[in-house]
Design goal:
Elements lengths: L1 H10 L10 E4 L2 E5 L6 H8 L3 H7 L12 E5 L6 E4 L2 E5 L6 H8 L3 H7 L13 E5 L9 E4 L2 E5 L6 H7 L4 H7 L13 E5 L13 E6 L6 H8 L3 H7 L13 E6 L3 E7 L6 H7 L4 H7 L13 E7 L6 E3 L6 E3 L2 E2 L6 E3 L6 E2 L1 H17 L6 E3 L21 E5 L22 H13 L3 E5 L2 H13 L4 H7 L13 E2 L7 E6 L11
Parallel strand pairs: 17-19, 21-22
Antiparallel strand pairs: 1-2, 2-3, 4-5, 5-6, 7-8, 8-9, 10-11, 12-13, 14-15, 16-18, 20-23, 21-23
Helix pairs in contact: 12-13
């Protein structure tokens, strides 16, 4: 974060000149980071990739600091070797399976087909991975068949992700595959994709894109993480994009599973960009990218800012109370890297509910990129109303969601009953704290024993007991109506979050 502030200062003309130097030893070069430098510019200077610098220096992200010494390998000391039509990649510190796929422009399915015993979630330093020459991103995961393509589901695939990758819609996939269950696809399942089809053909849904403009300090991996997408997807949506060389002012298309609209926000007294960004569930970098020329340190009252928001042009309405209301113009919850939707027909909510739920899991994934997927159970029906077996969930503001717990695998958390000592407090609190700090929720219902464990863990980690006392019902007793996190019977398998009424929903009742 300190480096980013220095970079911003440079952009504003307040640079402090610091010299960088290099020293050569054997086949390696040592580069000392200077003010204003980032991994992308250093990689370009030496003609290497960002991922290579990360591997050589055991870096897990893009953050570097002034004065940090980075090892740059000589071009002859690569971590891969070519032989007879194939490349052998030796896993280096910091490597991930996805990163290797992106580097060699191949798919996970191809990598696994060339390396039979490869576990994509457990690769080790020094492991040798075969990459075949001439592979393309679709050659092994799909094959031509008649008038279409047959795609074989790979680990980590979602139906919406497959649709986005092939430029088609979910409706098209279901029309071409009669028995396809959108909530249950399995590894190895074969899905037909018609040739010549596009997401904009006929009466199908249009493809939606947002545009991000690169600002000072950006890296492609950082943009991908903030947007909840992969670098490979960014390259698919921007065919001419060079992942190792992005420039200030460059416009990058990001495909959205939701429609987008631009609103005009008028700066109010006391506003600053951080507060405005938080209020709209976006980042300061995004606001700056949508408003070229805006000085982040000098925004004035009455200034009009363009802010891109997800959601349909016709806004939704939550009418009545959660226990006896209805939903108008509801929006269906899209897939997301942080969760999986268990039953899509029971996953409708207001635009604000969908936005806030997705924003919470995007925040967790930004802080904890390796966090597993969580199961989202029930929100509301498309038009709201009674939903068995619930008493609430009628007006598009409620959601039942599985916990982060100690039995989760590296990729997903099973929806199951847990004891208090099995809660993953670090991940669960990150989500709850995001919603609470941004004043987005009315209540979160959590089993009392799980509350107890979370409070103990959070006090031990240094969170103020006074603040926790205002948020949690524990230790006041499970019948005392206090706090925003409260006990309700039947919440060992999941928590229940109720989002607040949006200011524009005049008929919504808390």
């Amino acid at each position: 974060m300190w480096v980013r502030r220095v970079i911003c200062a440079l952009a504003l003309g307040h640079a402090v000149a610091l010299a960088s130097f290099v020293s050569t030893a054997a086949a390696d070069t040592t580069h000392v980071v200077a003010a204003g430098e980032m991994l992308g510019s250093i990689a370009a200077r030496y003609g290497v990739r960002v991922s290579e610098i990360q591997a050589w220096n055991n870096l897990t992200d893009d953050r570097i600091r002034i004065g940090q010494r980075l090892t740059i390998r000589d071009g002859n000391s690569d971590d891969s070797a070519e032989s007879e039509g194939e490349t052998i990649h030796t896993v280096a510190p910091g490597d991930t399976t996805l990163g290797i796929c992106e580097r060699y422009h191949v798919t996970l399915s191809q990598l696994q087909s060339w390396n039979r015993n490869l576990d994509p979630d457990r690769i080790r330093i020094g492991q040798r991975i075969t990459i075949r020459q001439g592979g393309s991103s679709g050659s092994s995961s799909s094959s031509s068949s008649g008038s279409g393509t047959v795609y074989e589901v790979a680990p980590g695939d979602t139906l919406l992700g497959i649709a986005a990758r092939h430029g088609v819609t979910l409706n098209q996939l279901q029309s071409w595959n009669r028995n396809l269950d959108p909530d249950r696809i399995r590894i190895g399942q074969r899905i037909t994709i018609r040739s010549g089809a596009s997401a904009s053909s006929g009466s199908e849904e249009p493809v939606n894109y947002t545009t991000y403009t690169v600002v000072s300090g950006d890296t492609l991996s950082g943009i991908a993480a903030r947007q909840g997408v992969t670098m490979q997807e960014l390259q698919e949506w921007n065919p001419r994009l060079d992942p190792d060389r992005i420039r200030l002012g460059q416009r990058i298309r990001i495909r959205s599973l939701r429609p987008t609209r631009t609103i005009r926000y008028e700066v109010q007294p006391g506003d600053f960009l951080g507060r405005i960004a938080s209020r709209h569930n976006v980042t300061v970098s995004e606001i700056l990218s949508w408003n070229p020329g805006v000085d982040p340190d000098r925004i004035r009252i009455g200034h009009q800012l363009n802010i891109q928001q997800s959601g349909p042009e016709v806004p939704s309405e939550s009418i009545g109370a959660a226990y006896g209301g209805r939903l108008v113009n509801g929006e269906q919850l899209p897939e997301h890297p942080g969760y999986r939707v268990r039953r899509s027909r029971r996953a409708w909510g207001t635009n604000e509910t969908i936005t806030n739920l997705m924003a919470g899991y995007s925040y967790v994934k930004r802080r904890f990129p390796d966090a597993p997927e969580i199961a989202v159970h029930d929100l509301s029906f498309e038009n709201g109303g009674p939903m068995s077996p619930h008493r609430s969930h009628q007006s598009g503001r409620d959601a039942d969601i599985g916990y982060y717990h100690s039995m989760c695998t590296e990729t997903e958390c099973e929806y199951r009953a847990i004891n208090g000592d099995q809660i993953n407090t670090e991940l669960q609190w990150a989500l709850f704290d995001y919603w609470i700090r941004n004043d987005l929720i009315e209540y979160i219902f959590v089993d009392y024993r799980i509350q107890e464990q979370m409070v103990e863990d959070l006090i031990e980690s240094g969170v103020s007991a006074e603040r926790l006392g205002r948020i949690f019902q524990f230790p006041s007793g499970n019948r005392i109506a206090r706090g925003v996190i409260r006990h309700e019977p039947g919440h060992r398998t999941h928590f229940h979050v109720r989002f607040s009424c949006y200011d524009g929903d005049e008929r919504c009742r808390e």
